[in-house]
Amino acid sequence: MNGLLCKVVNRRTILSFCRSEGNFGILSLNTNEKYNERIVTSHKLDTRNQGAFIMHGNNKRQRNSFIDFYTPPPPPDVLSVKCGDLWQGYLGMYVRLRGRIVKARLGRFLEIRDSRGIAQLVADDDNPRMLRMFQSIPIDSYITVYGIVRSRLTPNKSIPTGYVELHVEDIRDVDYPMDENGSGPNQRRRLNTSAPAAPVSRTVTSIEFKKINGSKGLLDRLNNRLTTCGELRSIDVGKHVTLVGWIDRKKHGKFLHLRDGYGQTQIVIDNENPVIKQTVAAINADSFVLVKGHVVSRPSSNKNTAFETGDIEVLVEEFQMLDPELPYDGPILPQNQVQSETEPMDIANNTVETSQQQKSAPKTPKVNTFTNRTHTCGELGDKDIGKEVVLCGWLEFERMRKFFTLRDGYGCTQIMLPDDLGEKLRIETIPFESILQVKGTVMGRPPGMRNETMATGGIEVILSDLQILNKAKSKLPIEIREHNRAKEPLRLEYRYIDLRFSDMQKNLRTRSKVLMKMREYLINHAGFVEVETPTLFRRSPGGAQEFVVPSRKPGHFYSLVQSPQQLKQMLMVGAIDRYFQIARCYRDEATRPDRQPEFTQLDVELSFSDRDKIMELIEKVLVNCWPDFCGALNTPFPRLTYDQAMADYGTDKPDIRFAMKLIDITKSIELNPELKEGHKNFGSSAILIKFPHSSLPNQLKENLNNIAKQYPKTKFVTSKIVPDVSQWIEGGLTRLVGQDVTKALSSELHLEDNDLLLFAYGDKEQSQLLMGRVRVAMRQSMEVRGIYTPDTSFSLCWVLDFPLLSEGEKEGTFESVHHPFTAPHPDDMHLLHAQKDLPKIRSLAYDLVLNGQEIGGGSIRIHDPNLQKLIIQDLLKLDITEFNHMLDALRSGCPPHGGIALGIDRLLAIMCNVESIRDVIAFPKGFDGKDHLSKAPMPITEAEKELYNIEIKVPEKVTEKVTETGNSSSKSAENTNTSLNESGTTETIKAMS
Questions:
Q1: Whether the predicted model's global pTM rises above the 0.85 cut
Q2: What CATH number did the domain enclosing 156 receive?
Q3: What rounded mean pLDDT belongs to the chain?
Q4: Which of 240, 395, 691, 882 could form a disulfide with 754 if both were Cys (CB 3.0 to 4.6 A apart)?
Q5: Containing domain of residue 425, as a range?
């Protein structure tokens, strides 16, 4: 090996560059006085890596060894095993364990625990390095170990793993428990001394800020450093570094521990250099020093696994004590070099920005203008380190009388109390949820204390002043704790407290953003006019139940509008040709998770348009307002006819994210004429589940049978193809439907052994509806059982060509499927004028469906007064005088027009992935329809009754006669649903109408 001597660092180490056969490297001749050994290493340098050759030498003995600076990967046949699963079946195998140390014995035994149990670790006597590691790792540390499973000499029969133990050959990762200062061996962090350090900010931490005691020169020097004491690894060997910190510990006079806010590094000084020796002797605990030198690898026997920098040390070339009074005159780093790689996020500004082109609003609204704060609690990050800030918010947590968390609607920030303020303020005496205003300086957290789950987890604010703006009572009815959420009635009663939860903040701010984007597109890009229409209107016959509002005129009442339908049509007559409104609507109906007595909808109407153009408009509105966290929307949305949706999915609001389409088996079932008797419109639909997913758990079977009971005009059958197809054809199902039917089903569906067939027959519409619900129930069961992964995507589709009319409860009567103002399909006008086959008349109505839920509905309207009168008076049999105002408007020159309404509450609930629309409404009604906050509805006074001419009559209780069960048993047995279980026997379920 030929080399060129470049520099003699000190007596202990000689550095030189060497060249051998075209390979370049760094050679270090190192005399280790303590361990008295000589190691010659060679390491090739390339463009990807910088390494060093280290040669330790003495005259007593020599040995050659190759040192690899990188932790080797585990063997390919390593088995990852839970601690509690270690047993004799693993004897002799090389395994990996991870757990928390719960016990240490005799310096060579450790017991670690995970969720499955306890395992014993052993360090062999002939492995002194492992023995030292066992003795240096504290209790409660989490470690990852690799080793060989062997039998115990003395089994411990009290635990399942007591017959074996793991003889450890390697310890890869150590997570130390965290102490108060976030430093030292108790600091919880992930230890890997060979891997490169994770990228971190190098700005001043709170520990350093306290240490510099207000020195501007030291603050600037720390903010402009290139390397910290905690980030050096074996990959940095050979580098020349400059470090700033304080001496934490001296060892043997020549080995010092240099510490900063990010960790510590061992430095080695030359005791024969009188200048350095004199400087080291003069330093104290508060002294800041500057160290320059080369990073070298420690001898293998001298490595310290207790610290992340334990594989290396720095050979000191320059050692200087820093004067805190002197200004910093070194290079200034660009702002982006001292800034964290991850910008802080906050709920208000970043979570609901869309990725579309139409964006007029700024990304970061100035939410701190016109307030007494300088920042919100959710926006501070590494870029703000060193700034003086004022924050306002609610006291969320307090710990150790030294830290507390301040929360507002945008996030939360950790505040640290200096020692001189801790006793004075006594933060532990302030009740949680009190309103505070704090002033302080932003500092970076030590690396081991950075909280990646918080947007502001990389910083904390060093408190300088605190004001209590409003002290909360000591015991609130609701605690703002995610792990112990109150029940919904209590949440609704104290909604003003419940709104402080982060998910409620996100939901309501998302709602505001979405509505703003809708308005922005409709007004700025599509030229619509926002018009407010009355809430108090007249009763509309033929629709949902309405809320009535008394007036002072005896016997006269207003009604709260179900929707602005008639009003927006009259706006079209009035030449407001492009109208929209964020409308409040009211319906006196039972409350459900997706329904409220009062709700919000985006109401849109425009003239001189058609169905396709209106659907295209709504697609563009949704694309523009769609939040980033929901992913991108693909347009145009798929379109299905009503008949197609019912045939394929068994519902007019299909979830098209998964297949499992219904199969029409009517022709096969009709081979047995007896099965279609008594049905005007007979039909049969099926679902085929192929093996191996064809199991039918008992709970699912019970659920399906309960669904079937709700469709009395059908029979529901489940049958598994066992033991094989040929025997199934002649099996139990044949007794129910006949052999001709089973043969036809086998041929039509290509049945195979162990397939599962589910089908319903009877009334066509009810059979489709039943199988549509079975389809959804089967998919949900498969997701729960892990057969399919739950689909969290968003899939929209249009459903078109709805029937115009449906049969009413009384024979010979009809009702509007949508509303009386929906235009019939032009291709079916001949049926309308002939007034025959009325259920077959299609309409120009369209629904928008998202993930199986209807989020919008609209239609082209009737603008011909004669056609409108025909439908209201002749077909629906409604009192025409109730609609005179509408007919007069149509006779006054009404343009062709159409529109749509989107349910904002339901749309936001799906976007925010919540189960109920109550979670996206600030003050919703409860499941019982009541307002739990104000206790409405409430009785009114006698004076108010007199003012509105109201007299209250309490209805008498009606005593229902209880009929004997024997009288109804024969009738209930007439209508049954039948299912075949997996063994081929028949199960009969009484149908309930």
A1: no
A2: 2.40.50.140
A3: 83
A4: 691
A5: 347-476
